[in-house]
Amino acid sequence: MRRPMVAGNWKMHGSQATNQALLAELEGHVRPDWPIDIAVFPPYVYLADAVRALEDGRIQVGAQDVCAEAGGAFTGQVGASMLKDVGCSYAIVGHSERRRWYHEDDTLVARKFAAALAGGLKPVLCVGETLEEREARQTESVVARQVDAVIAMHGVGGFADAVLAYEPVWAIGTGRTASPAQAQEVHAFLRSRIGAHDAKMAARLRILYGGSVKAGNAAELFAMPDVDGGLVGGASLSADEFRQICAAAAVHH
Ligand code: PEP
User: Which of 128, 140, 195, 206 is the most buried (most CB within 10 A)?
Assistant: First the structure.
């Protein structure tokens, strides 16, 4: 019912030379008949090159962030319509690294979500709790607050063209993955939270898991009924790891 998706967040890694090699390898690895969506998220400066390198469109390209403003005097920022203009399909909003290091709060993330949609991009909204919050049994209240901020600002309608990613902060870049049962529990909670507003939309919404997804754990995570693929950081920089993660998602369509 839901087409799985595997998204590769390259973070601040790569160069023209290494990106070219990685994309060429990925294109060679990815099977055209896999019934999944695949996207890579290189740093801004490499987006146009990535779009050109992936001309046939089998692998789509997205940005790791987007400005909340549509355009104007905002030095250093990049707007959704610019990203669309160079061929991007998606923009990640609310990644925990941006929430943490750049102090992005729920309101700003909700504005970025709307800006992405207004510019013709599909937002990939990241939500997730820290280790302290999990240990204090606040996981559900934290992810509910993060999702509710978007719904409060724009209604639930935006989720029709969005992707949600559950990324427990304690699992990102740490090698410590949520167990399939832990991921499933939060994914089901998120789907029901959105389902309380619009059950049909919630049933169609893709919810990706992110946090140390690797070739070795992807299959068991993607086997969970509410896990519709992965948002992959570190392992997306290896064509072979990423291919195996995509193959695991293709099995669970
Ligand atoms: C991420 O950056 O979204 C992520 C999940 O990273 P990693 O896979 O490296 O934990």
Answer: 128
Helices 180-195, 139-154: axis angle to 10 degrees equals 30
Ligand 1 atom with minimal separation from the 126 CA: 3
Task: Indicate whether residue 234 lines ligand 1 (CB < 6 A).
Answer: yes
Number of domains in the chain: 1
Predicted local distance difference test score (pLDDT) of residue 247: 97
Give the residue whose CA is nearest to atom 6 of ligand 1: 233
**Block mean pLDDT (10 aa), the chain, length 253:** 96 98 94 95 98 91 98 98 98 98 98 98 98 96 98 94 97 91 98 97 98 97 98 98 97 75
pTM, two decimals, is 0.97
Identify the pLDDT of residue 56.
77
The reply to whether ligand 1 has any atom less than 6 angstroms from the CB of 221 is no
CB 172 within 8 A of CB 215: no
Q: Is 172 in the pocket of ligand 1 (CB under 6 A)?
A: yes
Domain with 48 in it: 5-251
CATH of the domain at 209: 3.20.20.70
Three-state DSSP class for residue 66: coil
The residue written with tokens 């049994």 in the block is: 137
**153-156 long-range Cβ contacts below 8 angstroms, 24+ apart:** 153/107, 153/110, 153/111, 153/113, 153/114, 154/110, 154/113, 154/114, 154/117, 155/197, 156/194, 156/197, 156/198, 156/201
* Gap from CA of 72 to ligand 1 centroid (Å): 32
Evaluate: CB of 173 within 6 angstroms of ligand 1.
yes
